[in-house]
Amino acid sequence: TKLVPGTIVEVPRNPIVKVVPLSTYRQRMDVFSNTCVSQIDPMYEGYFIAWRNKHCPNDSGYDYDYRGYFNSGMPPPTKGLHWLDIYKKPNHPTFSNMSIYSTPEHPGGRWLNNNTTATFRPSAWMKADPERIEELKKYWAKYEAPKGNKLYLEEE
Known about the structure:
3-stranded mixed beta sheet, globular
């Protein structure tokens, strides 16, 4: 299949996400980081590396599937803008139901947007992990609160 930049392709949900009972928060998150990675045809690997070096050179991809985004053919966001949730991995602090990795077993949270700000509600699955919620709060204070976004942690 020829990859044409700017072409939007149908993205299937990824069924490989599995829960593995591990002792630490970081170990649990590492499982998601290592299993939620899209494959790239080897003939496009060089193109992917050049694309990644240009558009997200300082991000390891630990909590975002840049290979999946690249495979989709969608153009990357304008520098400084937000990457779409569609390829957030379950270990991303604001993993959402818009991700291909959101499943009934591991549902992402929900973004509620208005014209100027957004509110994020983590899923019950996310809230069941106290360490995850602490990491989310730290992330929120650093990246989302300064934009005026709200974090909703109350029970529904």
